[in-house]
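Lab notes, practical 5.
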Amino acid sequence: MKPLQKSGKLANVAYDIRGPVLEKARQMEDEGHKIIKLNIGNVAAFGLMPPDEIVQDMMRNLGGAEAAGYTDSKGLFAPRRAIVHYTQQQGVSGVTVDDVYLGNGVSELIQLAVNALLDDGDEILLPTPDYPLYTAVTGLAGGVPVHYRCDESAGWMPDLDDMRAKVTPRTKAIAVINPNNPTGAVYSRETLQGIIEIARQHSLVILADEIYDKTLFDGAKHIAMASLADDVLIVTFNGLSKNYRSCGYRAGWMVVSGAKRAARDYIEGLTMLASLRLCANTPGQLAIQTALGGYQSINDLVAPGGRLARQRDRAYELITAIPGVSCVKPQGALYMFPRLDPAVYPIQDDQQFAYELLAEEKVLIVQGTGFNFPTPDHFRLVFLPHVDDLEIAIGRIAHFLGNYHKRHA
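Output from the prediction step:
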């Protein structure tokens, strides 16, 4: 049999956070090595479990006929209604149950939203660094990802001048990830209003990824983008994976708000694509209402002294103590994106750098170019491990960097 070949679109997708480094990690684990993984936000792998009321509610529901059957293609009414109430709490107006789509996690819904929007050659403005799924699904839909700069010196805020300069007649949307993965930035009201104004001037759709909207530190406030405008079409993504430590439940939602009347064809496309996959998994849908209406335990984790806050603080303290390493302290999400001073660490290939770190120190990180960052002088790490494990892991990174500097001095 002739081996299957990748399509041209798939071959060109820049979704490179899985690759030779991860394959090497799997090989090493098969050989019995223990790898400290700072590469992925899979919260359950670090002992952060869903709230008990969600687990108990899902267990009760699994035995019923409702959990075993298909639902409406947009999802069950009760969780969609709970999401409408949640958007109202955020200050978003004009959302009805018909504007809410449930999905198998946010990733599926992002792909659905992009596929419904793009014709071949259309462009989406994406941040750099990005969450690489956006670049991948844009390419797979036949579109062109165009990356706007986020300014490290300004706390990783989007550079609005750069964004404006990259709008062309083929631009269809702006993707905004706030709180941000991979930088941990939480965007200011002024920044969000500036992005909305660009979208307003050029009749663009805003894709607002707000999956970390409750994972906030140091009093940072998240502002729902859809609360700032009702005359721009905004598609907001959220779900249970991070705030409710329920990655495997694959329970996400997408809310369409704002200038819906002018986007009837697009909304019809969203509904058609939602129908093609029949429905999202029903047990995951059944967890949403309980999660949104229950005790918000994420607040305890991110409060001063809470587990996530302690881990973030210690990881930041340790990583910035390494000579030649700087980092903007994350205000949200679960990641930080440190910079390696090129004068100290003259890295030419950051994937090779990550590979060597793994091989020598048994620590797995993701290279910055895996997030479509243009220069090989950053990497992303998660601060999900317990403090003791973070101290060991970052100590190993410091040891590796010390040797790297000596080798390349």
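Observations recorded by the TA: The CA atoms of residues 148 and 205 lie 16 Å apart. The chain is about 40% helix and 15% strand.
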